[in-house]
Amino acid sequence: MIKAINLTKKFKDFTAVDGINLNVSAGEIYGFLGPNGAGKTTTIKMLTGTLKPTSGQIFIMDKDYNNYELEIKREIGVVPDEPKMYENLKGSEYIEFVMNVYKLNSNEIHSRFNEICDAFGIDYLNDYIGDYSHGMKQKLMVASVLMRKPKVIFLDEPTVGLDARAARILKELLQKYKSEGSAIFFTTHILEIAEKMCDRIGIIDHGRILAEGNLEELRSLSKLGNRSLEDIFLELTGGSEVKEIIDEL
């Protein structure tokens, strides 16, 4: 469902993503983890077609981005790290705009959207988006994506700004979509979420994938015998000196 081959992105002399390879299957939740500036968001932007790679190939549902960009964008769903919306529109107008862009006018789509709104407590569609909090925008962005039931879903820090109830509902919805065959690719800094939800995890740092696999496979890579994803992550990304730093403060 998602395949990247030697994917690279350079900004002048700086290499943000350095020849990474990815392969995500249907019915799989793939967690993409890394420190700030590791290349996570740049990778998602390339995979979703908002940033052109310097080199490498991307296939979504066996379609090459170079030849099928618009078709791919019609079929994927993207929740960015910052929900950018037209702030002079009301929530209802924004959803109408999205439905028109994707030519979605079926009763099924409207019914699904209303159900998602009820689940997330979205009762502010008649208010202007410019008056929304970050969490309110995030819920509406998630609803606008999930109502389409895309087969490939990209989420960049999707739980940031969500309250505990909304975050739990989102996690349950993603599990439901996974069981129905969707491929889900998401980044998060909350490692407990990744540990509980992901079938496989990739850890990126300085633009390169350091490790990839399920939790047991990642545990086998630990030279210190670490068991939790947080400890493995810190060991691999050079953050294992946290205790020493705290002791020195």
From TrEMBL:
Transmembrane segments: none annotated. CDD domains: ABC_DR_subfamily_A. Residues 2-231 form the ABC transporter domain. The keyword ATP-binding applies. PROSITE patterns: ABC_TRANSPORTER_1, ABC_TRANSPORTER_2. InterPro entries: AAA+_ATPase (IPR003593), ABC_transporter-like_ATP-bd (IPR003439), ABC_transporter-like_CS (IPR017871), ABC_Transporter_VariousFunc (IPR051782), P-loop_NTPase (IPR027417). Keywords: ATP-binding, Nucleotide-binding, Transport. One of its GO terms (molecular function) is ATP binding. Pfam families: ABC_tran. This is ABC transporter related. The lineage of its organism: Bacteria, Thermotogati, Thermotogota, Thermotogae, Petrotogales.
